[in-house]
Amino acid sequence: MVKMLHKWLVLWIIRMLIAAILFNVAVAEEVSSDASLYSDCIYYFYGRNSEEAVSIEAFMDQLMEVHPELTVKKAEVYYNSEHYAEMQSFYQAYGIPETSQGVPVVFTSTGYFIGEKPIREMLENHLVENNNSACPAAESRFVAGIVGKSSPCSILESLTPVRVIGGAINNYFSPGFLGVVGILLSIMAVVGISGKSRKVVLQRALTFTFGILIAYLVFGSGFFSWFGIEAVSYYASKTIGIIMMILSLLLLRHAFSGKELFQGMAHHKHVEYNQKLDKLFSGLGTMIIGIVVGLFSFAGAHKVYAEWLSYLLGQQFNITVFAVLVFYVLLTIALMVALSWLVYWIRESGEESGVKGQWLWKKKQVKVLNIVLCVITIILGVVMVVGY
Fold first, then answer.
1. What domains are defined for the chain?
2. What's the whole-number average pLDDT of the chain?
3. pTM of the entire structure?
4. Which of 55, 214, 240, 276 is most buried, taking the most CB atoms under 10 A from its CB?
5. Which residues have C-beta within 8 Å of that of residue 384, sequence separation ≥ 6?
């Protein structure tokens, strides 16, 4: 009985040892499989400001965080011509037709994934199954890949009418453009309160708008690029907002009190300051104001405009890019022209209603209109100073 028990114990120990060995072998194979994942190398090309850029960038960061030994070479192709050329060499070497090319794209040593969905859903499984941990090379070979919805490879191809129009409309809500609109309304209020006719008010508004147009075209062509620095735009928008509020408050004081801005000064000083004010808000003066305000207005959404237009025009002159620039700027200032004509039309509709109506407009409605412009400007100034 003792011998049988001893024999059974020996067999049980042997079985346990065999099971432990098999378990260690399985674990070693699993670790080896994981190691092949960790040692993989991939090339990831993307376009900044493309539709998928933010989403897929977060996924790639998460992938590298989960697998810290995975080698990922990132390359931005919209604003870097060398990276773009490298990506094209891979497309050519892997034999991918032009109709299937796009960004984002991931190249491995044995395959490729084009578009956000294939990268997000299939890349990790591919890396697990891939036994070749070498980095991809732009050499002619047959490889399999998955193609999904993607953005154009070139930034020039990405400038679709919808995107350009959407970018221009988005600029209407940027702090820089709010400042431009606020200064425009302030100029119309100043010229209107000074007793100028509706035609003069319209002329000053349009010369200011023309100055903005010049500033946008110059900046978009790559000149004075430091105006696009985020810190410069931030503090400039705050300063413009404060100037708008102070000017509008002075105009409101004048409108409600009936006193002139420089009343109480000596007569010669009064005349001198009025002459300086007339020069400042002359046709040339408002155009210069427009150029200066325009250069300091590149905050918020203007950052995208500054990036792709200044980059493209900085590489080499391209008539298509320049046409897009002009179209974009005209869309951006279209609201300013519409506001200028709206104020002109309101005054015109009142002043042409008869002698009595003309007198009422000069004595009351014009005053109310200018007060409304000042109030709107103050609100815009508060939004710029506090809201952004």
1. 17-156 (3.40.30.10), 159-387 (no CATH)
2. 76
3. 0.65
4. 240
5. 175, 178, 179, 182, 237, 238, 240, 241, 244
